[in-house]
Automatic annotation (TrEMBL):
<dbReference type="InterPro" id="IPR011009">
    <property type="entry name" value="Kinase-like_dom_sf"/>
</dbReference>
<feature type="domain" description="Protein kinase">
    <location>
        <begin position="26"/>
        <end position="333"/>
    </location>
</feature>
<dbReference type="GO" id="GO:0004674">
    <property type="term" value="F:protein serine/threonine kinase activity"/>
</dbReference>
<dbReference type="InterPro" id="IPR000719">
    <property type="entry name" value="Prot_kinase_dom"/>
</dbReference>
<dbReference type="Pfam" id="PF00069">
    <property type="entry name" value="Pkinase"/>
</dbReference>
<dbReference type="InterPro" id="IPR008271">
    <property type="entry name" value="Ser/Thr_kinase_AS"/>
</dbReference>
<feature type="region of interest" description="Disordered">
    <location>
        <begin position="176"/>
        <end position="200"/>
    </location>
</feature>
<dbReference type="GO" id="GO:0005524">
    <property type="term" value="F:ATP binding"/>
</dbReference>
<dbReference type="InterPro" id="IPR017441">
    <property type="entry name" value="Protein_kinase_ATP_BS"/>
</dbReference>
<keyword id="KW-0808">Transferase</keyword>
<protein>
    <submittedName>
        <fullName>SBK1 kinase</fullName>
    </submittedName>
</protein>
<comment type="similarity">
    <text>Belongs to the protein kinase superfamily.</text>
</comment>
<keyword id="KW-0418">Kinase</keyword>
<feature type="region of interest" description="Disordered">
    <location>
        <begin position="264"/>
        <end position="291"/>
    </location>
</feature>
<feature type="binding site">
    <location>
        <position position="55"/>
    </location>
    <ligand>
        <name>ATP</name>
    </ligand>
</feature>
<keyword id="KW-0723">Serine/threonine-protein kinase</keyword>
<keyword id="KW-0067">ATP-binding</keyword>
Length: 375
């Protein structure tokens, strides 16, 4: 989809935009979510009796064009089973713009992630394979999502056997000019962070940066880390961030020595070379080089290879979503880490029976002695 085609479709939608108040056609049940744009409300269509999620945008801070773009893109993508469905209901009222989409009764992925623990690996695999399909479809349409994160993954079935990508407010046609500051910082690819720093150095002038599918692939890697651990891997993709700097140093060492973790399914931090023994300087160097970054220490070598593909600092060398499928042949999380994850999930489940628990945010974690502390 080109920018020109998108604008033409928006123009046609604008001509058929209905004007009415929400209460004229819908019985509002409750609020499902909110953001800077406005709110999402659970409602029932008075005429058809169909439950719907109304996404409502305040006119005071939403341009008509940006609203029409999001609706048009959402409608064009909604035929895919791993993307949230959109009804052909688009309207405006005195103060709002709105459109109707299908209801995901189990909320979003963020709500089920246990902070500092994550979700079981089986659940993470289900989520990942569906997101791969959704992003492959979206990229095939010539679009870049630019906002892949747990809050935008809607859960239709509790065990995550059906999740759907949503929220296309930042979605752009491939090749569109974008700003370095766009998107959530922990999920932003290095090229976005570099652009932000360059912009500051150039006194506010925005450098040329184009929307490419590789931005979504990086965000997919960060999202996978989040759902498996309940933490962010870093606060931002800049060498001023110690955790990202550690990852970048490890990644560069793998590239220099042409290490392929997929060739050996030994666990993260290990080495299959028998010459790597204590007291052997070459072995010590090899072990240091192979040691996983602190925040990735709970992952197997196979998982490290997966992350290495998605979280490649060079955007042109970054793995495409479908390439991730080759890493489904073995375990991703070490056994000890799995035990802690399952225990944490059970504890969270018991706590949720007493009171609803939704973490306000994730955090980065850094190892201090034998304990993990939040940054």
């Amino acid at each position: 989809m080109t920018s020109l085609l998108l604008d033409e479709m928006c123009h046609l939608t604008a001509q058929s935009l209905s004007t009415f108040e929400v209460s004229d056609h819908f019985r509002v049940i409750k609020q499902l979510g909110q953001g800077s744009y406005g709110k999402v409300m659970l409602a029932v269509h008075k005429g058809k009796g169909t439950p719907m999620a109304l996404k409502l945008f305040r006119k005071s801070n939403t341009s008509k064009l940006s609203f029409l773009r999001e609706y048009t893109i959402s409608l064009c993508l909604s035929s895919h089973p791993c993307i949230i469905g959109v009804f052909g209901i688009v309207f405006q009222s005195l103060r709002l713009y709105g459109f109707a989409q299908e209801v995901a009764i189990h909320g979003d992925l963020f709500e089920i992630i246990v902070p500092q623990v994550g979700v079981p690996e089986t659940c993470a695999r289900k989520v990942l394979v569906q997101l791969i399909q959704a992003l492959d479809f979206l990229h095939g349409k010539g679009l870049v999502h630019r906002d892949v994160k747990p809050e935008n993954i809607l859960v239709c079935v509790p065990d995550c056997s059906q999740v759907k990508l949503s929220d296309f407010g930042l979605t752009k046609p491939r090749g569109s000019r974008i700003h370095g500051t766009s998107g959530p910082v922990p999920y932003s690819a290095p090229e976005l962070t570099v652009s932000e720093e360059e912009e500051k150095e150039q006194h506010g002038k925005t450098p040329c940066l184009l929307a490419e599918p590789s931005l979504d692939c990086w965000a997919l890697g960060v999202l996978l880390f989040c759902i498996l651990t309940g933490n962010f891997p870093w606060e931002k993709t800049s060498c001023s961030d110690p955790l990202y700097r550690e990852y970048k140093t490890w990644f560069d060492s793998q590239e220099v020595h042409q290490v392929d973790p997929l060739a050996d399914h030994t666990e993260a931090g290990g080495s299959s070379n028998p010459s790597n023994r204590a007291g052997d300087d070459g072995g010590q160097e090899e072990q240091t080089r192979m040691k996983a970054p602190t925040q990735f220490s709970s992952f197997t070598t196979l998982a490290l290879s997966l992350f290495k593909g998605l979280l490649t600092p060079d955007a042109k060398a970054r793995a495409a979503p479908k390439e991730v499928l080759q890493y489904f042949g073995g375990a991703w999380v070490k056994d000890k880490a799995k035990e802690g994850m399952e225990l944490g999930t059970k504890t969270q489940s018991r706590n949720s029976e007493v009171a609803e628990c939704r973490p306000s945010s994730f955090s980065c974690a850094v190892e201090t002695g034998q304990k993990w502390t939040q940054l």
